Amino acid sequence: MSNHKKLVESITSRDQDFAQWYTDLCLKAELMDYSEAKGFIIYRPLGYAIWEQIQKYLDLEFKKTGHQNVYMPLMIPESLFQKEKDHVQGFAPETAMVTTTGVEDLAERLIIRPTSEVLFGTHYAKIVQSHRDLPKLYNQWCSVVRWEKNTRPFLRGKEFLWQEGHTVHATAKEAKKETLSMLKTYEKLGKDLLAIPFVTGRKTEREKFAGAKETYAIEALMHDGQALQSGTSHYFGNEFAKAFDIKFTDESNQIQYAFQTSWGVSTRLIGAIIMVHGDDNGLVLPPYVAPTQIVMIPIGSNDDVNQTVKKIAKKLSKNYRVLVDDSKKSPGWKFSEYEMKGVPLRIEVGPRDLENGVVTVVFRHTREKVQVAIDELKTFIPNALKKMHDEMYVRAKTHADNHTYTAKSYDEFKALIKQGGYVRMSIADQKAEEQIKAETGATARVILKGDLISEICPVTGKKAKQNILFARAY
Question: With 0-12 CB in 10 A as exposed, 13-18 as middle and 19+ as buried, what is 232?
Fold first, then answer.
């Protein structure tokens, strides 16, 4: 058991230093590694496999609603990127450019895509002619490059993986419906797959996406009380269509500009899973997103035990992602290894278990051990995975609910935001928002619906206009 203890001790305690705990966990659980290019990470098999599960879930959801996958080029000519001024201004500090082939300078600089609105815009301008061509519901899975100064694995990097949907519609009503539909898809992703309760809502004017009319976001609260914007859905109106000349002939034979949306989530979701569910022993993966849902460990070198483990694994593998570890490593090492990697269920089988016709099942999220009759595993496993998922979701929601506060004065707001969590407050305008960020480091996460918390803005003393959910954020 000494190896077990040593491995666990190699992670910094979550409550002692959350940032170091997070970095330790990313490396020790073998989710990623640092590459030789600063700010660019290597996705190791476990990290990439989690992304594959997210991708699989979303791809199915997108296709259910008629969306099609495409792939746009990595490079964007600089002149094309300049077409939408607000968009350009928003991304200018983060754009990486190719200026030379190594033999000669390029006639025009090429931008490595930070996002693909301009590429989709020019393509749609070519293929949309009539109302019969609409809607176009496209999505792409790719990586993007944004030259971030301060990077952290999965949360903020110079290159990250994501999906970006870009749709074009005949009417504003259709485009707005698409925007909100995708927000609900992301919210469902959190509830059904990630066991993360997302707060959803519209972003303020200050926080919205560059060039968008409206931006909606999914927000999650991490264990340390900081928020993480985990995905966005944007309504563009027809501003991009005007910039890129996306026009069509309507049913009355009149020329109209189209209406557009874009929406996306990224490998930042892996960071959310780590920081919402992880503990001092490593990852705690929700069972439906876990690349390996069950690990089976034979205890000892008994042939009957090994044969039984393989037989059980073969049956379970028809419905679940199962790994058998019959390597020569000690059971204690294996226990700590799979705890570190967050495998939801561990099934231990030893000679004594076999004599009694049972196996020992260990739940990763609670470390609870139960003995289950071998012939009852078929009904036990699905119930166990559902129980685990539901308990993890409730635990995360309880944490978020218990760290959501309401402030009626600015002093109260400052005290609450300092201790971490979400703080609701009524404000008057963008100036109040900017003052709050400058003085407390908190930013507006989403606009909240409902009656005003207070009639007067505690920050400016002016008449309050809307309730905002604030938090310090990653």
Answer: buried
Residue 273 exposed, middle or buried by CB count within 10 Å (0-12, 13-18, 19+): buried
Of the chain, the percentage scoring pLDDT greater than 70 comes to: 97
pLDDT at 88 > cutoff 90 = no
Residue 435, domain CATH? 3.30.110.30
Domain of residue 443 covers 404-471
- Give the Å distances, CA to CA, from 188 to 85, 185, 218, 227: 34, 5, 11, 19
pLDDT score at 2: 42
The C-alpha atoms of residue 449 and residue 434 are separated, in whole angstroms, by: 21
Whether residues 62 and 208 share a domain: the answer is: yes
pLDDT tens-place string over residues 166-175: 999 999 999 9
pLDDT by residue (tens digit) across 249-262? 999 999 999 999 99
Domain endpoint, select from 222, 246, 277: 277
DSSP string of 223-241? TTS-EEEEEEEEEEETHHH
